[in-house]
Structures are given as C-alpha cells and as structure tokens.
Amino acid sequence: MERRKFITMLGTAALTVPVMGTIASCAPVPEKFEGHKFPELGYDFNALEPYIDALTMELHYTKHHKGYFNNFLTATDGTELLETPMEKIFENINQYPAAVRNNGGGYYNHALFWENMTPSRQEIPALLKQSIEKDFKSLDTFKEQFSTSAKTHFGSGWAWLALGRDGKLFITSTANQDNPLMNISGVNYGVPLLALDVWEHAYYLKYQNKRADYVDNFWNVINWETVNNRLTKAKNL
To answer: Considering the domain 49-237, what is its CATH architecture?
Structure first.
C-alpha cells in the first residue's frame, strides 16, 4: 500500500472510532511511551536448556522476532503509529493493513513470551494462584486446559492465559500473530498474562513434530512473578 493512502486511512480510522469506547479500553499501556524498541532478552540463549535449546532461542530472537520488529517499523514508517503504544494500536487493528497486524503482533507477542520465561524455577505467587484456583478450580486443571489449547491449536499461533472484562481468567488461542488485545472477529478480548508460541519455529529444531513435548516442558520455565505482575497491573486499572 502506498504511504499516502495508508496515512489517509489512518486519519479516517481515527474519525470512525466509536464514542462509546474501544474494545481494549482496559489494556495496560505505558505511562510514558518513548517509541517502539526491540527488547533485551534478559537471559542467555542457553539459559532455558534443556527445555528450549540455545540455537532455537538465538534464531527465534535474532531472526524471527527482530524480523517482525523491523517489518513493523517499515510498515508504519511516516505514520502516527510510530508514536502509538502497541496496546492502543491493537484497539483498532482491523483498521490497518495486514502488515501492521502481522508484524505488530509478532513484535509484541514475542516480547511477552520472552518475559514470561525464566531459567529460575519459581513458586506461583499467592494472588495468581488464588485467581487460577477460583476460575479453574485447581492449578492442575488450569495446566491441563492451557496445555490442551496449545497442543490442539491448528497451524501456527499462540496459546494464552488472559484476564477478561468480567475480571475472570480465561484460556484461548489465536492464529498467526494475533493476540487477545486485537479487535478482530473470533478473538476474545482479554489482557494477556501468559503467552506460549506454538509456531513450528519455536520448537522444531529440538522437538521436530512433537509439539506436545514442547508444551509439557514449557511449565519448567514459566516466570510466574511476571505473570502475577501482569495480573496485578490489569486488576488495578
């Protein structure tokens, strides 16, 4: 799409946002947005072994994630989206070209994914554990349902734990690089708390076609403190 047409479309989209509010009005956004930046990984490529191997981590982070980030900057070059937080962009993502949706989602989703993993084994904080037990009856039931969502999602995509408008936790999956903050058909709105990448590039070097093994091992590297912090922030909005 020509840049002039894209900028014109952005202006039109801004005029057509309903006065009643946007679908992601309770999404946490940065207090002070300083532009889109490629995030630091936070740990070494081999830090999550043996569950996620170093080569997969390096390729995933430096090639796939960086590629989404670079392509997002290209897709939004010269537009107001460069100065707009991703959470606000997702509120009206159906107004923008596919390049913004796909690459913006890939950039944002991976940032969440890296943050909700850690090489340090952790206990689940009390608030998160209580919320999970309240909405899923037990931690084991939650894990089973989340794992099933990740294992049975058809094709490329993501599995999510999210906080809904009703204040309840729910599990869902999305195709490609979509996420629960996007106002698109077929995606339940929610604030993402836990993200699991189930694209083949996330696991194929180590697990080949055994996605189930990859999903089962994900439980060994979850950063529960990060998930709990996301929940706390979302509940306080």
So the answer is: 3-Layer(bab) Sandwich (3.55)
